[in-house]
């Protein structure tokens, strides 16, 4: 299984360790690639919209491409973020903004519809739900059909401080999640993904899009003629 971890932080704290408990317990052969933000993508979206016309025209494309190529090839994405002020960390939000052109409203990557994702967030007390929601929205609109959220309040500022009882719970929870992810079955594509994809296709057909280049992309993939990205991998 090819696994790509996208960390919304450079440091290896509670969030990193919880995510690794899951990844380490997944059965079978694994090829693991990790990116840390901001270390591997230290930019904010400039709002230039150049990506809408040409993905490679993003001023930060060179760094993005390395990450996107790895994501494209992955079977499983593991996205991690500490909960900061009830939401996703700023570096992960920057990554989400820098990839908005890959949302279904624009030019989604076909391979996204065949992946699973796990989102891990830890908080000292409260807020993992809203932090996870930030990531979940992005992954959903990028096309990922099966997303497993895992948020936990660790009552700590770092992994060493996490109480033993809490670590025991994390062990149990991560056993369960890793088992679920080890099945090797293709992810099932739910009604919400199918419906959203269909609606986005209708917008492309009607020309209610951001650029004719987007419609050309959808046409070239065959998605305006009934082909579905989850049925055949086209990128
Ligand atoms: C800038 C900042 C904002 C934070 N905001 C919250 C918060 O909204 N809710 C919360 O319960 N903990 C909050 N925390 C605590 C962290 O979410 C918590 O310690 C988390 O487990 C850290 O994960 P890490 O060890 O991976 O960095 C915040 C910490 C920082 C540094």
Put the structure in a nutshell.
With 235 residues, the protein is α/β, with parallel strands linked by helices. It has helices at 14-25, 50-53, 61-73, 90-98, 128-142, 164-181, 191-206, 212-220, and strands spanning 2-7, 31-36, 76-82, 116-123, 146-153. α4 (90-98) links the parallel β3 (76-82) and β4 (116-123).
What does this molecule look like?
With 235 residues, the protein is of the alpha/beta class. It has one domain: Flavodoxin domain (Rossmann fold), CATH 3.40.50.360. Helices cover 41% and strands 15% of the residues. Strands 2-1-3-4-5 form a 5-stranded parallel beta sheet, with helices on both faces. Helix 1 packs across helix 6. The protein is globular. Bound molecules: flavin mononucleotide. Flavin mononucleotide binds next to helix 1 and strand 4.
Could you state the order of secondary-structure elements as H and E?
EHEHHEHEHEHHH
Distance between the termini: 18 Å
Bound molecules: flavin mononucleotide
Secondary structure category: alpha/beta
Percent of residues in β-strands: 5-15%
Features:
235 residues; 5-stranded parallel beta sheet; 15% strand; Rossmann fold; binds flavin mononucleotide; alpha/beta
What is the topology?
Elements: E1 2-7, H1 14-25, E2 31-36, H2 50-53, H3 61-73, E3 76-82, H4 90-98, E4 116-123, H5 128-142, E5 146-153, H6 164-181, H7 191-206, H8 212-220
Parallel strand pairs: 1-2, 1-3, 3-4, 4-5
Helix pairs in contact: 1-6
Bound molecules: flavin mononucleotide.
